[in-house]
Every structure is written in C-alpha cells, then in structure tokens.
Amino acid sequence: MTNPANTDSHTTDKVLQRQMSAGRRRFLRQTLLLGVGHNIVGAFAASAELDPGPNFIIILCDNLGYGDIGCFGSKLHRTPNIDRMAAEGMRFTDFYATSGVCTPSRASLMTGCYPRRVNMHVDERGGAVLRPVAGKGLNPEEITIAKLLKTRGYATACIGKWHLGDQLPFLPTRQGFDYYLGIPYSDDMTQRPGQDWPPLPLMENEEVIEAPVDRSLLTKRYTDKAVEFITTNRSRPFFLYLPHAMPGSTPAPFASKHFEGKSANGPWGDSVEELDWSTGEILRTVKQLGLDKKTLVIWVSDNGAPRRNPPQGLNLPLAGWGYTTAEGGQRVPCIVRWPGRIPAGKTCGELCTMMDLLPTLAGLAGAGVPTDRIIDGRDILSLMTGQAGATSPYEAFYYYYMGQLQAVRSGKWKLYLPLEAKWQNFSGRTKPSETELYDLKADIGETRNLADEHPDVVRHLLTLAEKARDDLGDIGSPGKNQRPAGFVANPVPRKLRQQSAVTAARKKGLYRHTR
Question: Which residues pair with 192 in a beta bridge?
C-alpha cells in the first residue's frame, strides 16, 4: 500500500472522532499498562480436551493482483509452484479482502471482522493505512486467530509484514504470536524529507535487529525462517502466518539476485516469481516432513494490484485497480490445499472473504468462535471440502473505501451506491456517483450497468446497505456495533538500539528462539 496523503479534509465526522477518543481513553486505562487481551478465557466456547488439530499456514502476498499468477490467468509470470498448489487443492474465484488497502485487510484476517467493526479502517489522522510511529493499532482486547489457536496448544509465528501497529502493545508478540520476524509496516515507508520516520526496521520479536533492512532479501529471509519454524515444530500443531512484503508498494518491487531481472515483467514479475519459489519451499518442507495430510495451507493476497504507468500487476479479467472498491481492488486470488480433506483440482465460485479464516481455523482446531462480540466471518469448511450443496454464508458483502460505504454484493449482484460525494483517492477528491448494478457471474468485468433493468434488485441492495450503515457505520454516522481500536499516548519509533547480548549471541548461532 503506498503512502496515502493526509485526508483530514474528508475524515470521519466529529461524532466518530468523539467515539474514537473515548475508545482511546478506555484503551489506555484498561489495556496499555495491564496487558489486557492475553487472557481470553471465557470469551469463547472450546472443548476441554486438547486433541491435536491440523497445522495451519497462511501465505499472504502484498498488492498482488487477481491475474498475477498462472492458475488465475497470467501469461507473464512463471508460477509453477502456486499453479501446482491449485492443481492439488481448490481455487476460490470469488474471495474478497475487506478493503483495497493493506492495514484494514490484515485487521480483518486477524480478527474475522470488517475493518470498521474494529476501527481499523483509517489511521488516527484519517489516512488509509497506519504509518510509522502511529499512535493507533489493533486493540489487544481483540481476539486474533493466533490467540484462539494458542488456547489449543498451537505454536504460533508471524513472519513478514505486520502493519497493524508498530507500538509495543500492538506487535504480533502481544497479539497471540510466540515469535515474530518482519517489518512492522509497508516496504515503502522509509526515511524521507518531511517525514520523521526511522530507517525501515527488521524486527525480531520486539527488538529491531537491522535498519534499514535490505528489502531485496526479505522474501528469502522470511522463507528461510518459515521453513525453520515448520521444522522445529513438526511434532506439535502450529500456526504459521507468512505475510510477505512483496510485490509491495514501491515503484520497483524487490527480489534477490537469483530472481532479479529474470522475469518477463520487470521488477514486479521478478518479485512474483520469487514468491512462487517461496511457496514451493514451504510446500516442499511440509511434504518432506510428512505433514501434508496434517496441514491446511491457504494462499491469498491482501488486495488487488494498484494502478501503475506502465502497468505492472494485473487484475484481469476484473475491472479496476487496488486501493478501490472495484472488483480488481478487493477480489483476490485464493488457493487452499489440504491433501485428503480438500479435493484436488476444484474451483469454488461462492462468495467468501478474508474474515472467514478465523472461524474456519478455530473450528478445525476445536476452539470456539468468540461469543462476547460480533464476528463477521463464517466457517467455510464445507466449501473448502467440496460438500454437496454448500453455498456462500453471506446475505451481503460490503465494500468500504476507508470509512465510506461504496458498494454491496448479494449473490451475483453488485450495486455501486448513488453518492453525492464518492471518495476517489486518498487526497480527498470526491465526485457524484450514479447507481450501477452488475451481474458478476455474467459480467465479471463490470461492463454492463443493469440498474434500469432490475429496479427490484436495486431496492433490495439499497436496503442491505442501510443495514450496514446502522451496524458498521458510514460517513457522518458511526455504527452502533463498532469497537475501539487501541491507542498509545506517546508513540515512539522502532529504531536499532545498541546490540544486546542476546542479539550478539543469536548472530553467532549460540541462541535460538524455541518458544
């Protein structure tokens, strides 16, 4: 996600700001010093016995487009490992991120909720994503996938780009992960004139171990550490969250020397082909360790490829680009693989979302979905396993652009809402928009507006949109079921400190993190 400009001119209204301020005070009072959020006993129903559940690996790419891999139509990029994963598993063709940008999308993956539900749809200044030294982050009172799985005895690791807050209470180690290695925000958020940002840090757990990090080595380093984590924990259930930094947000994505300059699509293609190599290494390790039939692997992107000139990433056959509510912005490629449980070579065209990962994994692990709060996602195991008659669990899916509701989908129909001032970009430009209705099954490219031909469908989708405004909110109207984000009063930059004894020992190979 590229660095958005400050959008104070069209941020949420004063009512929502008061709600967020109240949430900040409540968070500071209840969570910052006490570390609330680690103790989640009683917040969900779980069976008493800790039977070993399957292993889970989520591979998340950054800004990778719907048409950037071979099994989803790319003719530019060589992705044999990802294509093999699809042949051995299932493609989801109607799978959605909940935002066209990365922070909100990742918040949904972790919590099973719409970004507005957990107040992660904008940063504290109204921008589209969290920036370095942000005072806002994912509230530790939220229950993440990692927290749920730890109650079932899972080893948990986050290896890659986090982007849900760079302050200590918001880091992965405070959100249910035993181990963290990665950059805390986007790869383009580097030192520059006019921004008091630190050198891009590589963190291990809660310590910066390198700054600025060599971005060309990120995919390889993440992969190597992921393989090590899998190998170390092969005899117990584990959850590996591998959110890559690539293709990322810079004009020229990064790749290691082995892949640099080797693709037919410049730096973007180089980074995609290295991600394919990484996927192959993960699947090879799982197979070599005899874990194939014990491991569910999910491969997905956080949002669509952004518009570049000349074009780099591809969202075809979808319309539009990342950072928008067009199909190309929020519909993403998704592949699931679990030999013996997920049928090979199948395709699912039912509407599913990033929010479904939490309830699905929780169910498989024997953990219950939290009952003390609204969780928007649904268990989609029946769709993953190809159960006869299984259908989408959604009456409606809502497309938000930061805080503004712009579209709604129900079944095959997608309605772009008529708006007097539809947000167009992160700098605050707006323009009026008309009612647009598309049949996404017959017209995946959103080329034929059917609003005049189906006024009954339009009315129904407008009614669904009002339900979202009441529940989740919209511009000028906070949702009645929103929860506060986390806030710290005096955020500090994540900087490289004087080398500690532990860091020195780790570099010499004398120390290994084995939690």
Answer: 195
